[in-house]
Amino acid sequence: MPRHLPSTRALLVFDAVARCHGVVKAAEELCLTHSAVSQQLRLLEQQLGVRLVQRGARGTTLTEAGRRYHAQVAGDLLRLENHTIEAMAQRPDGVRLLVGAVPVLAERWLLPRLPGFLAQQPACSVHLQVFPTQVYMEEPHYDVGLQYDDASWPGAAVRPLRGERVVAVCAPRSRWRAAAAQGHFRELPLLQLSSRLGAWEAWFAQASIVDRPPNPLVGHRFDLFSMVLEAVRADLGVGLLPHYGVARELASGELCLAHPFEADGPRGYSLFVAPHRADDPAVKAFCEWLDGQVAEEAEGAPPPGR
After folding, report:
1. How many CA atoms are closer than 13 Å to the CA of 246, on its beta-carbon side?
2. At CA 131, angle to CA 305 and CA 255, rounded to 5?
């Protein structure tokens, strides 16, 4: 069965015409003649059986069909270019490990420790990407994933990696610090993480806090832990964060515990290994190294940088 795929040359010419709003500027950008650009456009239109551009006294513009088609193929061209650059970036003398992780775990726990793994595996290049939460992917493209326990990855080998401890933090000179330390949270502004709107209520229950706001869901709301962290620095209120995510700031004195209680986090983290990569030496080495890092942390070893 024939595949209806235009040539990349024709698509690149069409993309340039769409972006440059005309044939002349597109030809200049591509270092082609005006006639060569026009020829590629005609060939593409003939293959599709659809008029993509219209020529008038004011120059060349896209038709409605052309605008829709360009909106679709522009992203495909960018992805194709990124895939090509990705292939070109492979080290001929080494291996690549593609790791997907929850952003806060990647930034605050994995990255500070990663030099230790790379010292053991100098030929390995680690590509760290966001493993989105609460998104179903039929077949994630990662070799290894660090995600919440309830994440979905059909066919992957899954095992628990580590738990989470949650702490309430504030700025050292926060106007809310004294009240929070005594357990008086009723009048305190609570900083909310959009994906964990019930976190404060759970923390209050575990900490046996009685003087709490009548509605613990009220407060400034943020999409990322990093945003909550910066809001705490700005003294917009009291934030609830994973202990590992603020360990550096607590150690340096940039932030402080608003209250001494540490609660169990709502979800732990698991290690996911792609089914086709389970026996790969680099993947095995990475998983063993992760186990060692979790064991060291459990024994009280200070995190890197302290």
Report:
1. 28
2. 35
Strand order in the sheet with 239-242: 239-242, 165-170, 256-264
- Identify the residue whose tokens are 């650059």: 85
The CA distance from 51 to 36, in Å, is: 18
Whether the Cβ atoms of residue 102 and residue 72 lie closer than 8 Å to each other: no
Residues in the chain, total? 306
Q: Give the pTM.
A: 0.72
Closest-CA residue to 18 (of 69, 58, 90)? 69
pLDDT the model gives residue 299: 79
Lowest mean pLDDT among 13-17, 76-80, 144-148, 192-196: 76-80
Alpha-carbon span 21 to 44, nearest angstrom? 17
What percent of the chain has a predicted confidence (pLDDT) above 90? Answer: 63
Q: What is the mean pLDDT of the chain?
A: 89
CA distance 259 to 200: 13
Q: Residue 72: left if φ>0, alpha if ψ -120 to 50, beta else—which one?
A: alpha
Q: Dihedral through CA 276, CA 82, CA 47, CA 62, nearest 10?
A: 140
